[in-house]
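Supplementary Text 2. Reproducibility record for the structural model of the 323-residue chain.

All settings were left at their defaults, and a single model was retained for analysis rather than an ensemble. We include the record here because the model underlies the residue-level annotations in Supplementary Table 4.
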Amino acid sequence: DIAGQQSYIDIEPWNANKILLPSGDSTPFYLRNNKSTSQQIQDEEIAVDSVQVLYGGMHRLFYTLREVDVYEIVVELNSTSGSRTNIATIEREVRAGPVHIEHVEITTVTNSLVAGEEFIVDVRLFDEFDNFVDSNFSADRVEVVLKQPAGDVRQMLARRNSTNGGWRASQALFVRGHYDADVHVNGAVAGHLVVSVSAAPWYTVSCESTEAVDELISMAGEPLSIIVNAADRHGNLAQTAGGETLTLGLIQEGSTPTELTSSAAAHDADGSYAAVFSPDVAGRYGVRMITEGESTDAIGCRDVVIVPAEASNRTSQAVLPQS
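Retained model, structure tokens:
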């Protein structure tokens, strides 16, 4: 039997208990649930929708069950004395009906991801009467249509989760931004999700100037401005509006290296960052990004040469070139 769909039981004129059934269709039959596998109340009445008398005195009893379960249905006949007599016992299994689009449960592990993490959507389906539709026994189709920040659309086909009978769709997202996701069940939209992806920890920094010079010369003690763009390992650039903070370093070459560090602040609306240094010691320095105590070479940044104050009257502001 299917939940919510009308079913019937045929009772012969001479049943197992040798009781001859009346010939009319107004016979007071009763159905009773004797036991079930879930928390159904034993001896619960089951309504008889109608009775039809067929050829040969066969009686067809119509009924409707709306809850998934295995029932032991007792058919009873009301005698002239007013007591009920058991004339048949039948076992029936009721399974979930078709998925109802308004009875779909959608959950996500998180709606806020870091680039490279998986976007995971779990979906559980129910019929009109809130009976769970187990994916292991259904032919339903569940997919997530994902609209990426650039406008591209990608379909994530959900797979059956044999552990809990639900559905799961997953996709690693690498581009920062906001994504719109529509959950489709059998072609109809069942729900809408929004997921936000932020950049991963910074992996590289690069100098943005295009001046074709091999090195930058500045005077000791004078402020030196270095402007960079930062990107994570997936190519997502830092965004000024995101409030990210970067640490840049100038590391002096030689047997006794000197390291200067400075926090980079937002430079422009394009997401570039600027750090200001004032090296006091003359020498050749390399530009580095400092992450958790580890330094990484900045891409395209030429060496910085610091000369003694008396050796140059060069202006104090400079921007590093890019290769």
